[in-house]
Write a structure and sequence with these properties.
By secondary structure, this protein is of the alpha+beta class. Helix content is about 45%, strand content about 15%. β14 and β15 form a beta hairpin.
Length: about 750
């Protein structure tokens, strides 16, 4: 398989472009086979030329585009393309670019880049016309009349919004419009990135501040979008050109390192020797293949150096070996040959053939150590996979009908469309978009096997909101690979995540979640819910059933989460549950205070000790009209505060409340499945878990805290007894803050 055969059908720069000298195969049979394949490709190319005769009416400026287009679409309607060029040339007549070139040169350059990718005729027509509506008197209605609604939709999708109307937000809103149009037709984004590619190639004619602004949006938004569509051949050039503008010194330094490495390799021939040995091994295994060396583009080398916190210094930083085979089964056979020749690096084998990336990329990746002790990355893929890796969504066949170009299987887009509707502020939209387009990903799975792609360092909360907004709002815990974990746990590739939810009316997100969630969908949904809670609290009105209750209401304190000053003295006994309760609130109850008048007054359960019916309690006045109830043994009940007056409570009741929060602590010898067994027991005792937190000491003693919902002291006693019977548990007790000590101090035990 010859290099030219491999690159055939790919746009310029999309085939194999080795930065290092290639070793000669030396195998006569292989060379003969490669020559035969090359001749076959050239004959097919000639046949296409003969099948569609040249049309004399094709303008000279359009001929290269037509030739490239015929390589992919021999039966294309060239007449429509010529007509579109004529319209664009007439409308742009007299307009000039800052470079001094006629403006029509820009649509032609964009169209040529797309023709080399292999897009369809409709896309090329839209590319020729993409600036006519924005920069001339041409209207979308005219586009519909002359070229049809499909072309008009593409042109409209890439048309910028009026700066006079949107002001500073015009750029952000134009990107938002692009995202929405992308949902209808991926070709809108393909035209846009080709448009930006030519603009980056002619960026020298812009002012320095304008260069920086354009390059930043290119690097943070458009290049990642190109990556999401898998159009790597354009994405690489966009990144390198933006990198050169934004970080010129680093760009020059990385380029010098690559030049030095290339010169050293040409002198030593170490990589060339490895390639020759690999070719021999593949021929011996009767695997028809092509092996070449490819240099990483400069920005990827720079980014990898930033992640590794060191300068590029070895093969894995700069080059990789690419192996192309004919069939999928040959990929795995070639992998076996490679691992038989060199020792693989543990943990570096990644199978993107069986599990493609979010942009449909497929390949086998492995890292091996050569005889000199140096590591080198090797990628194995088929020819079809290689074209998909270079041109992405363009390489996929377009289905029948006008909507055949719709995106399928790119779940990241659906998530992006979902949260953008709730982001009104333009700056927040750009920030969220940049964050959501992180090129890396973590693949998590639901218990039913659904795969969810997430940014690095994502948490179970991100998974919950990816599944459904309501699941995210009601999340109280998670099991990762069968083990109970905190909601802020960082997920790793392949984790199976089960979300534990609460059906309580007060269930809802915590503001603390904003500190660790990574997806824009989760962040926007949480902020929206919290903002609604604050508005409802300020208005003093009730929330709809199922919504989170928040905010303190003066005088009644029903469902309030705002804490009186006396309630937080000494801190909570468990940081995570205390924060959770601080935002979800505890029930307000009707109590009878022994103030000689025997009048009833609204009360609030103190979060530090969470009294239950039947507990001996003491009350304290608060800034509102409600009385804060503490258990008598609570440390905060012994504190004297000038702003608080003690109220003797003879009795209290809650006729409208069925369950009450209680916090328990568990101490046990750590073992696999311990928390799963505890939560199973809690479920069997018919209690709901509001919050959970766990720690394990160096001597392998597990300390767990659970905030649960019980009907009263009797059910709590049953829960404590049941948990004590779990294997490995040597104590379980009700938590109570018995002194006003720092939160770091261990809580005292309260006898129930």
């Amino acid at each position: 398989m010859d290099a030219e055969a491999v690159g055939a059908g790919l746009p310029a720069g999309g085939g194999l472009t080795p930065a290092l000298a290639r070793a000669d195969s030396g195998d006569d049979a292989s060379r003969a086979l490669s020559a035969a394949r090359q001749a076959s490709v050239r004959l097919a190319h000639l046949a296409r030329r003969m099948a569609t005769p040249r049309m004399s009416q094709v303008p000279p400026e359009l001929r290269d585009i037509v030739e490239a287009h015929r390589d992919y679409h021999p039966r294309a309607d060239i007449g429509a393309l010529v007509h579109a060029y004529g319209v664009a040339e007439r409308l742009h007549a007299g307009q000039m670019r800052r470079s001094g070139d006629a403006y029509i040169s820009h649509p032609l350059a964009v169209t040529e880049a797309l023709a080399e990718l292999g897009v369809d005729t409709t896309t090329l027509i839209a590319a020729l016309l993409h600036d006519t509506v924005e920069d001339t008197g041409y209207t979308l209605d005219s586009v519909v009349e002359e070229f049809g609604g499909e072309v008009a939709n593409l042109v409209d999708g890439v048309t910028k919004l009026d700066k006079m109307r949107f002001g500073e937000a015009a750029e952000a809103e134009t990107l938002r419009k692009l995202i929405v149009a992308l949902a209808r037709d991926y070709r809108v984004l393909v035209i846009k990135i080709a448009d930006r590619l030519h603009n980056m190639r002619t960026l020298d004619f812009m002012s320095p501040p304008k260069q920086v602004k354009i390059s930043r949006v290119t690097l943070e938004i458009l290049a990642p979008l190109a990556h999401r569509l898998g159009v790597s051949v354009i994405k690489r050039e966009l990144e390198d050109r933006a990198f050169a503008v934004l970080h010129p010194a680093e760009h020059a330094r990385i380029a010098a390192i690559v030049d030095e490495f290339t010169a050293a390799e040409q002198a030593s021939g170490l990589v060339a020797g490895l390639v020759a040995r690999l070719r021999t091994g593949l021929v011996g295994a009767r695997i028809d293949s092509e092996v070449a060396v490819r240099a990483s583009h400069l920005f990827s080398i720079y980014k990898r150096a930033q992640e590794r916190a060191r300068a590029p210094q070895d093969y894995t930083d700069i080059v990789r070996v690419l192996v192309l085979v004919d069939e999928v089964t040959d990929c795995y056979a070639a992998l076996g040959v490679i691992h038989a020749l060199w020792r693989p690096v543990p943990g570096r084998l990644r199978d993107f053939v069986a599990t493609p990336k979010f942009n449909m990329y497929q390949s086998l990746h492995t890292t091996v150590v050569d005889d000199s002790g140096r590591s080198i990355d090797i990628q194995i893929r088929t020819l079809a996979m290689h074209r998909l890796a270079e041109t992405g969504i363009v390489a996929r066949p377009v289905g029948p009908g006008a909507d055949g170009a719709r995106l399928e299987g790119l779940s990241w887009l659906h998530s992006l469309l979902d949260w953008q509707e709730d982001t009104i502020d333009s700056d927040e939209f750009l920030e969220s978009l940049s964050s959501d387009l992180d090129s890396d990903e973590v693949l998590a799975f639901t218990p039913k096997g659904r795969m969810i792609a997430l940014p690095p360092r994502s948490s179970p909360v991100d998974v919950a909101y990816a599944v459904h907004t309501d699941i995210g709002h009601r999340a109280i815990g998670a099991r990762v690979n069968g083990r109970l974990v905190p909601l802020h746990t960082r997920l790793r590739n392949g984790d199976v995540v089960e979300i534990l939810t609460s059906n309580l009316p007060g269930a809802g997100p915590s503001e603390d979640w904003l500190r660790f969630v990574k997806t824009s969908r989760a962040r926007v949904r949480i902020r929206r819910r919290l903002a609604r809670q604050r508005r409802d609290a300020a208005a003093g009105s009730g929330l709809p059933e199922g919504a989170e209750q928040s905010g303190r209401r003066d005088g009644t304190a029903v469902g309030g989460t705002g804490s009186p000053a006396g309630d937080t003295v000494g801190g909570g006994t468990s940081a995570a549950p205390a924060r959770l309760l601080a935002r979800r609130g505890v029930p307000s109850l009707a109590a009878v205070a022994d103030d000689e008048a025997g009048e009833s007054m609204p009360v609030r359960l103190a979060r530090c000790c969470l009294p239950l019916p039947g507990d001996a309690v003491v009350g304290f006045t608060t800034h509102g009209s409600a009385v804060s109830l503490h258990r008598r043994e609570c440390g905060n009940a012994t504190e004297v505060d000038a702003d608080r007056d003690r109220v003797l409570v003879a009795a209290w009741s809650a006729p409208d409340v069925k369950t009450f929060p209680a916090e328990i602590a568990v101490e046990a010898f750590d073992r696999y499945g311990l928390l799963a067994d505890i939560t199973e027991v809690l479920s069997e005792t018919s209690v709901s878990v509001r919050a959970a937190s766990t720690t394990t000491s160096e001597d392998r003693v597990a300390h767990a805290r659970f905030t649960i919902e019980v009907t009263g002291s009797e059910q709590l006693d049953k829960v404590l007894s049941a948990v004590r019977r779990v294997g490995g548990v040597y104590d379980c007790y009700r938590v109570c803050q018995t002194q006003a000590s720092p939160a770091a101090d261990p809580p005292a035990r309260a006898v129930t």
